[in-house]
Amino acid sequence: MVAALVLVINLLPAFGPPTWSVLVYARLRWHLDPVALVVVGASAATLGRYVLASGARRLRGHFSARYRTNLANLADRLRGRTASVWSLAILFVVSPLPSAQLFVAAGLLDLRLGLLAASFFAGRLVTYSLYVTTAVVVDRRLGDILTNVWGQPWWIALQLVLVVALSLLPLLPWRTARTRG
To answer: Which residues constitute the domain of residue 46?
Structure first.
């Protein structure tokens, strides 16, 4: 079930929840094996992103000729610079940032998805391991405290007050910063 959920989330080009949060929830809620959870999560996320990029690749034909020409020119530039492709691959390894747009771009540019998917998988193994391990440690040390606090009515009221306060910030009469002349 977790694998299917992670796969579907990673098929979304935008607005999906972070995969790590699903894995942390699954670990804390169902006490799943953390190693298996990370491997399954990284595998499903990689498959989802690969399919997303492949779908973006198939959409290229629906764009205008001018747009397709621009994509082809950019792809040629990237392919001519192996350092650029390797930089993108390294970005996938070390970055916990959302990757949907990067995979869509890679698909539209018709880049080699295998290298990017492998880099993404390796990077996600590391970041998901860190998130799940941290969640387990925090749960062991603070789990009872957090469980007792988060469900309390005063905690829910505090969260609502903070949401309202944040939503009112743009309505305040902010003054522009004065420049020194």
So the answer is: 2-141
